[in-house]
Backbone:
């Protein structure tokens, strides 16, 4: 991975971002944060609806129709800006434990979002009548929110990968 | 005053800890994403871009209480980060810009409350707020994005007071957890 990161850092797009890093890196990171904010707002509202704490005058379907597209769109924005950050600083991103833990959770979070939206489309009535009232589903909603919270923490820890001690590949040579 | 803040035992503890600053900063990001995410829901409703079929007052009451909780978390963690290196942050232009922007955001909310907010009964079910309300909403989005940008710039234009020593490769999670040593 270190070899790949070093090679990536010599490619044209990477060199371009590095040469303009005074504004390019903070700009990309800021867009990335705005994207995370849209994800967090959307996930919070859908989960509050499942918990019955907000949007209770709207059906689950209506709530997900409102926030699902914003959630999905923001996830694509995060993918694009995330890839740009990896291209811009390959070693700083790829040679960390935090990054790979984060990617594992991102894959999990995105998969949960996709499966949830798909099953809701296919079994709308079942969701509205029974599933949304189930304790297990409410627990899953809280867990899903916590996955996104952990993703934010791990994202920030990429910059502080030394907290993992010997588990951090950047601490070994 | 700034010097005194930096010398408080709380500030010293955060500086000396390996985990405190990264975790406080992470909590700050969690808080601010929830602040912006929930404010955006309200602003997009005012602008007529999303949730246009739903009563504004219902939407606001579902959303803004979470904004305030998240804002409290963000302000608290922001304050904790500030005291670790108060003199440096205080003189940082992006920090100052961010404080000015936060004041502008507050004025913006105040303007809304004393104008369009007063007549909410008249447009509660309308697709969007009256022109002044839409202006406030657009300004709010711009100001909060600028807050995020200036916040990110603070991190690029200051160095931390004293970087906590990285955990020596010998004091290991493997030892703590009884795992075989990493290669």
Residues:
């Amino acid at each position: 991975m270190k070899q790949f990161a070093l090679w990536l850092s010599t490619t044209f797009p990477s060199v371009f971002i590095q040469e303009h890093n005074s504004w390019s890196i903070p700009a990309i990171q800021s867009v990335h944060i705005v994207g995370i904010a849209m994800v967090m707002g959307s996930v919070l509202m859908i989960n509050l609806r499942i918990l019955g704490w907000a949007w209770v005058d709207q059906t689950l379907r209506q709530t997900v129709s409102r926030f699902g597209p914003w959630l999905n769109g923001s996830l694509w924005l995060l993918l694009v800006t995330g890839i740009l950050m990896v291209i811009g600083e390959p070693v700083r991103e790829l040679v960390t434990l935090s990054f790979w833990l984060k990617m594992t959770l991102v894959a999990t979070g995105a998969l949960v979002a996709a499966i949830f939206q798909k099953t809701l489309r296919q079994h709308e009535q079942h969701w509205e009548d029974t599933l949304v009232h189930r304790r297990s589903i409410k627990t899953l909603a809280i867990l899903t929110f916590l996955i996104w919270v952990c993703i934010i923490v791990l994202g920030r820890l990429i910059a502080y990968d030394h907290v993992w001690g010997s588990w951090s590949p950047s601490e070994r040579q | 005053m700034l010097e005194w803040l930096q010398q408080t035992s709380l500030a010293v503890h955060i500086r000396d800890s390996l985990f405190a600053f990264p975790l406080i900063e992470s909590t700050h990001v969690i808080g601010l994403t929830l602040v912006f995410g929930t404010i955006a829901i309200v602003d997009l409703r005012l602008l007529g871009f999303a949730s246009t079929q739903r009563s504004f007052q219902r939407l606001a009451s579902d959303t803004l209480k979470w904004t305030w909780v998240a804002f409290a978390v963000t302000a608290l963690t922001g304050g904790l980060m500030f005291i670790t290196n108060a003199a440096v942050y205080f003189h940082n232009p992006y920090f100052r810009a961010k404080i000015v922007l936060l004041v502008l955001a507050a004025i913006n909310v105040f303007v809304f409350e004393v104008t369009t907010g007063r007549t909410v009964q008249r447009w509660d079910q309308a697709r969007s707020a009256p022109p002044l309300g839409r202006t406030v909403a657009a300004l709010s989005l711009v100001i909060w994005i600028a807050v995020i940008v200036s916040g990110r710039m603070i991190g690029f234009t200051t160095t931390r007071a004293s970087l906590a020593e990285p955990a020596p490769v010998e004091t290991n999670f493997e030892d703590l957890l009884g795992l075989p040593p990493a290669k």
